[in-house]
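Record 1 of the preview.
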Amino acid sequence: MKILITGSRGFIGRNLSNYLGEKGYEVIGVDIAEDADIRLDVSDYGACSEKLLSLDFDAVIHLAAIVSVPKSLEDPRRCFEVNSFGTLNMLEIAARKDVERFIYASSANVYGVPVELPVKETTPLNPRTPYDYSKVVSEKFIECYSKVKGVKAVIFRNWKLFGEYDVETTAIPRFIKACLRNEPLTLYNEGRDTTDPTYILNFCHAVELALKKDEAVGEVFNLGTGNEVSIRELAEKIRKLTGSSSELQLLPPRTEAEKEPMRSYPSIEKIRRILGYEPIVGLEEGLKRTIEFYKRRLGL
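->
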């Protein structure tokens, strides 16, 4: 199977491209990066048509996006151009090519502050930032193209993915680098917020299941491990695994809105039932692999 991956040089894209390549899939990488197989801005439909319609591929995995919440707040229009209309452009390409799968990386951010725990796929959406809304809009575009154009789509609402090549400003890479340097770990609101840190290979595994199983078509799946971990617990685990002497700096919340801890973790009952998904790498093993990656990167 030949697979077109947008955002192929980003954190998720690099790991997924490597994973699928090792599994025998032929990958065509699309990204704005110079070293991509095809250099392309997905928000430019003319360029998408010109460069992609003449190619042969069986599936599209759409990852390309502006992932920074602060950047989405600074420039909401550009966020929607790339994240939402970029998705619309790739849906049109997928429809015209009649691909076997269109797999979309959405986000747990669509749930915002969840109204119930654990979060189920039926939990009401509660977006807060332009980034969150861009994902909701993209999901609606996918729903429309599935109904009107028959696009065989699958949506994954990912919790906090981490691993090799992660965005360096996110919590886990920051904690790992600070611990390796024995620098303090800054935890706002005393690190009481919770999430479900999920090693990147679990997402890759879920994508492969969605490529293989027709039962995935038309479905939305929460993607995580189903566990709730606080930011403080995460920092303490990384400190222990690195043997670091870093101190935890437990700071007050930065704003009034942050006083109430943000708790979010998924039910993965649906993806288990329909796709037979089980996480293949747990939190501790995923952290160990990521720590080793940063040790090599930092020359330690």
